Amino acid sequence: MKFPKFWCRVHNETGKVVARGWSETSHDEAAANAERRLRRILDFLQDGGRLDEYQYEADGVICEPVIDRVFEGETETAVISRNAYGSLVLNTPHLMIADIDIQPPRLPDFFRRIKTWFGLGRDRPSAEQQKLEHVRQWQRSHPDFSLRVYRTHSGYRVLVINQYWPRVDEQALRLLEQLDSDPLYRRLCKSQSCFRARLSPKPWRVGVPGAPTRFPFRNASEERAFDQWEQKYRQVAEGFSVCRYVETIGKAARHNSLTALIAQHDAWCCGDRPLA
Question: pLDDT value at position 226?
Fold first, then answer.
């Protein structure tokens, strides 16, 4: 897993182009790396390039602060981080987690209502049912794996509960792709060398406006503003769950080294409250 100790954020004269730099040794080195990255970005834009819309990464490392570390004995099994929009995230290289989105209906509501009135497509499985059946079929063709399946706000989360992964390797990435896991999620797993699972709701789904600033904070004032926002967000988030248990597929027993982590995952983000 890649979670550097020091981060720094810099921007150009207009403030429109932001670069983040990191270091394992000092804030000064992080600042120097941020300045070098800003120059590379500006040169890239001057040559006609376009900024990547996905701004989690800085030179192959996701820019997230560490909130907590999870240990089993003396072995660190997971890291809890805070992502760009303020939600907590479980990071672990050992428990495979697949994030599977369900695509929204392509037909406008009006046409979907017409189909309903005339009984068209009534016997066709919903997108939700099709996605779950795909996971079940995958497990039947891979009987050595046992899966724990959860419903999320916009799809499914699948944990592979009987295999302990020493790291996120090419085989793991292929399995995530076969399970139809989100491509952007797979990219993050590869970049960060760990699997990821969001533990707290997305702020906009619980009616909380976006955070006033983002990590790394430029000064104490920004950090205080974020702390005030986070306090409100956490109070509202308590009324929501991130996922809801659906079923376990497969006969292989749960791996002993994953039992505690799976239980912690469920305690952190599962429940009967509205999904967000």
Answer: 97
19 assigned to some structural domain: yes
SS3 track for 90-136: EEECCCEEEEEECCCCCCCHHHHHHHHHCCCCCCCCCHHHHHHHHHH
Categorize the per-residue pLDDT at 177 as very low, low, confident or very high, splitting at 50, 70 and 90: very high
Judged against a pLDDT cut of 50, whether residue 76 lies above it is answered with: yes
Q: Which of 63, 87, 103 is the last residue of a domain?
A: 63
Residues 36 and 127 in one domain: no
Q: What is the pLDDT of residues 140-168, one digit of tens each?
A: 999 999 999 999 999 999 999 999 999 99
CA distance 182 to 98: 8
11 shares its domain with 86: no
User: pLDDT digit string (tens) for 88-121?
Assistant: 999 999 999 999 999 765 556 555 556 556 555 5
Domain count, the chain: 2
Do 258 and 126 fall into the same domain?
Answer: yes
Residue 54 lies in domain:
1-63
Q: What is the pLDDT of residue 53?
A: 43
